[in-house]
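TA notes, week 10

Several of you asked for a full example with nothing omitted. So below is the full record: structure tokens for the whole chain, then the designed sequence directly under it. When grading your own attempts, check the secondary structure regions first.
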């Protein structure tokens, strides 16, 4: 039996973007055994798959440093993989790739399009054209390994069944109102819509709809708690303290408003329309939600800020570019959401 090992350690959004390819893969090759090597926190992403196991990495302890990577290789080697898909392509996976190749195990890695990205992100003479979306570059790796899949044949699952924990959370909401998810945060400030503007979006939308707010960690939840207290139809999903329960709610939303961040990918994986907001980053870099429509991707004003986009992660802020996302009007965000609804 073929045993495919998939290496994709982080980040949450990049791991979430694997799901469409894995659906196609498991349907086309139902007998293949698959192990995803990633952060154990992401295990709920894969709960829909019967033949996918998650191997949790531990880079802070047992898999730390060169010695830890050797331990990781020994553990993975004992799983007897026949094929390895490197969907991360970083130093750690390159090191593991060498060891797998020495054992004559077939391995292919993702093309990160580094030269294309360099042309997209450079300050001048930009080549502003869309790159191949990450989801499709993942599927290319599987094809190179001999598992021929076509993302155009992808089929979405039904929304997740809402279990007891999330059900009690939803018990007080009014039937008939639309359910809007809003994820106001991202890993870098260059990707976050100004919170005073986002609060205006929340305040307006919650008048007629239920607004579900997503965030984690003390900083994010402290802000969301203020909004929940201020607006009667705003609900803070942080109280669930469960990624699985949050996924259940996300899959049942009518629309998701997200930064260039993981929540947009999680919603898109369940065919939930996503309105995405882009600051120092841009959907042309290949990180837009799966099957996202261009009219749902609201980007900052490039006429005013011609150096956009500056990076893939939103971590490079040229002088004077601190407020690029203020060029996205609150009214345009609300209009985009209402068009979907």
């Amino acid at each position: 039996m073929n045993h495919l090992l998939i290496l994709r350690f982080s980040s949450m959004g990049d791991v979430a973007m694997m799901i469409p390819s894995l659906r196609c893969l498991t349907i086309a090759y139902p007998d293949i055994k698959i192990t995803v090597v990633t952060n154990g926190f992401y295990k709920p992403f894969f709960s829909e798959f019967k033949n996918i196991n998650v191997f949790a990495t531990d880079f802070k302890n047992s898999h730390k440093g060169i010695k830890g990577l050797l331990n990781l290789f020994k553990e993975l080697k004992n799983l007897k993989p026949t094929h390895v898909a490197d969907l991360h392509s970083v130093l750690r996976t390159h090191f593991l790739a060498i060891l797998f190749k020495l054992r004559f195990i077939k391995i292919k890695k993702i093309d990160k399009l580094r030269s294309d990205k360099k042309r997209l992100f450079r300050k001048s003479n930009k080549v502003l054209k869309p790159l191949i979306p990450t989801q499709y570059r993942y599927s290319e790796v599987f094809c190179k390994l001999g598992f021929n899949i076509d993302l155009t044949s992808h089929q979405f699952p039904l929304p997740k069944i809402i279990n007891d924990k999330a059900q009690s959370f939803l018990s007080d909401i009014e039937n008939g109102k639309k359910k809007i998810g809003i994820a106001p945060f991202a890993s870098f400030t260059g990707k976050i819509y100004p919170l005073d503007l986002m609060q205006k979006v929340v305040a307006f939308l919650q008048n007629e709809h239920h607004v579900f707010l997503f965030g984690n960690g003390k900083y994010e939840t402290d802000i969301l708690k203020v909004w929940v207290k201020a607006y009667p139809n705003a609900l803070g999903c942080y109280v669930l303290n469960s990624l699985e329960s949050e996924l259940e709610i996300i899959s049942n939303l009518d629309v998701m408003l997200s930064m260039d961040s993981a929540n947009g990918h999680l919603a898109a994986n369940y065919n939930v329309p996503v309105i995405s907001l882009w600051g120092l980053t841009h959907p042309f870099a290949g990180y837009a939600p799966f099957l996202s429509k261009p009219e749902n991707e609201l980007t900052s004003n490039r006429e005013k800020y011609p150096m956009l986009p500056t990076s893939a992660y939103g971590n490079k802020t040229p002088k004077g570019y601190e407020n690029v996302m203020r060029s996205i009007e609150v009214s345009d965000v609300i209009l985009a959401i209402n068009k979907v609804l």
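The chain is about 35% helix and 15% strand. Use that as a sanity check on your answer.
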